Amino acid sequence: MDDLNRGGSTAPLATYTEAVDWIKSLIPFGIRPGLDRIEMLMDKLGNPHRRLKFIHVAGTNGKGSTCAFLTSALIQSGYSVGTFTSPYITKFTNRFQYNNTDISEETLVELVNQLRPLVQEISETEFGSPTMFEVTTAVAILFFAGVSCPDVVVWETGLGGRLDVTNIVTPIVSVITNVGHDHMDILGDTLEKIAMEKAGIIKTGVPVVSCVTQPEVVAVLKEKAAACRSTLYLAGEDFSYEANEIREDVQTFHFKGPFRSLELGIVMKGEHQISNAAAAMMVLEVLRQYMAFMLEDEDVFEGLRHAFWAGRLEEVSKSPRIVLDGAHNPEGAESLAKSLPQLYQYGKLNLLMGMLSNKHHESYFKHILPIVDTLILTEPDFQNKMDAENLQVIAESLREKYAKENLAIIVEHNWGKALQLLKSITAEDDLAVVSGTLYLISDVRGTLLQQPDTEKGW
To answer: Over the stretch 130-167, which tens digit does the pLDDT of each residue have?
Structure first.
């Protein structure tokens, strides 16, 4: 890779494509947990993150949806909101939003040009070059602190928590949606170890909201919160939620918190979204009760109800019916398998999936195989993809114990051809589902919705 891409040239980047290509050129530096490089970068910039109010959201699943609920409710309540999420579904600018609007391409170029010489300086130190995600996080901080200046930033972790780049901030509230089996190659091979990493976002005196349920995970969070003298609002103990019914595509549920009880509704599909909405509601209650946020009930209700997050039980085609869901770990697969029969009536269920190689594939299949009639295995157009034949071997090994009778398993390496096959075999009364890594969801969604500017969702 030449010096221009790695930051060796001082000539300013002129276009959006050049700026994104430069950030992408940092991908080979990989994922390097730790805060040294981002701290150096922020120090060189005058620590702009210290001027912002953050709601820091971690968890295995549901982070993006929880961010969407919080963002929607706060905007509806009259607050300006910055939102930083990953990966993106349509375009790189999706990561950085102000009041649900992407950063402009021109602003992105300006901020990247501001960062590039500093990245080059750090790359010449013993710490090495900042990574793609570190630079992306720095772009977000510059955008929020120096350009858009929102009242509050909804701030999603990238991976884990304790050593995640986003953990450079001290939030006003922390959120840990849940803890499950994901990124075990980096975060640890037990739920306790993963929970310790997620709990790393808990800061001294900062309240934390969580919907974790496993006793061993609850114990880790309680111990960390106590050590930090932070109030922990735990689902099932300090607040609760109970599904009522689905009316006209709206899920209603009862929320009972430490301050009051409420009846709420959301259009995002799946029981698991009730958990995410309840976590968001508990955060909003903390902001209202202790931090003087002016949150009128009707605004909060409206904001939660109409929150949207792409690629999560999202119906993108009516004929044939195609639903996208970015379930890519065992817990996500369990929610998907539970939700589909509740939400849809169908003859056969045809599922297309592609995965990255570092996932817990066997446990994923144990949840999915019992409900699927035809399984099409493909590969995302992305590095670290899982070979479709290897997925087939795992699925076949579980067929006898878990699969429906007469399950058909098809391998098609090219995801575009696999999508065409899925459409062709799905009859009017059937349901087609595309699931797995969000990198596959991004490409499929862009194709089905005919979005020509769709980029790779890393």
So the answer is: 999 999 999 999 999 999 999 999 999 988 889 999 99
Q: Which residues have CB under 8 Å from 345's CB, separation 6+? A: none
Q: Where are the beta strands (DSSP E) in 48-172?
A: 54-58, 81-84, 96-98, 101-102, 152-156
Burial pattern 438-448, b for ≥16 Cβ within 10 A else e, equals bbbbbbbbbee
Question: 16: how many CB neighbours lie within 10 A of its CB?
Answer: 18
In the block, residue with structure tokens 């509704």? 265
- For residue 185, what pLDDT is reported? 53
The answer to whether 429 touches 347, Cβ cutoff 8 Å, is: yes
Burial class (CB in 10 A: 0-12, 13-18, 19+), 70: buried
Cβ-based neighbours of 388, under 8 Å, separated by 6 or more? 354, 377, 378, 379, 411, 412, 413
The count of residues in the chain is 458
pLDDT in tens, 44-86: 999 999 999 999 999 988 999 999 999 999 999 999 999 999 8
Closest CA to 6 of 165, 135, 116: 116
Strand partners, 352: 376, 434
Tokens 């549901």 found at: 62
Q: Return the bridge partners of 275, or none.
A: none
- Strands 250-256, 261-266: parallel, antiparallel or unpaired by DSSP? antiparallel
| Residues paired with 351 in a beta bridge | 375, 433
CA 26 to chain centre: 21
Alpha-carbon dihedral sign for residues 93, 94, 99, 101 = positive
Task: Read off the amino acid at residue 26.
Answer: L
Nearest to 281 by CA among 59, 57, 69, 84: 69
Q: What are the residues whose beta carbons fall under 8 Å from the beta carbon of 201, sequence distance 6 or more?
A: 56, 58, 157, 161, 162, 164, 166, 167, 171, 174, 176, 208
Residues 6+ apart with CB under 8 A from 420: none
- CA 90 to CA 98: how far, in whole Å? 17
d(C-alpha 275, C-alpha 188), whole Å: 25
* Helix 132-142, helix 16-24: angle, nearest 10: 140
pTM for the full predicted model:
0.91
Bridge partners (DSSP) listed for residue 260 = none
What is the DSSP secondary structure assignment for residue 146, as one 8-state letter?
A: I
Q: Is the dihedral of CA 340, 345, 348, 353 positive or negative?
A: negative
Query: Contact at 8 Å (CB) between 266 and 58?
Result: no
The 3-class SS string of 83-110 reads EECCCCCCCHHHHEEECCEECCHHHHHH
The amino acid at 121: E
Q: Residue 423: CB partners within 8 Å, gap ≥ 6? A: 320, 322, 432
Task: Please state, in angstroms and rounded to a whole number, the distance separating the CA atoms of residues 371 and 348.
Answer: 9
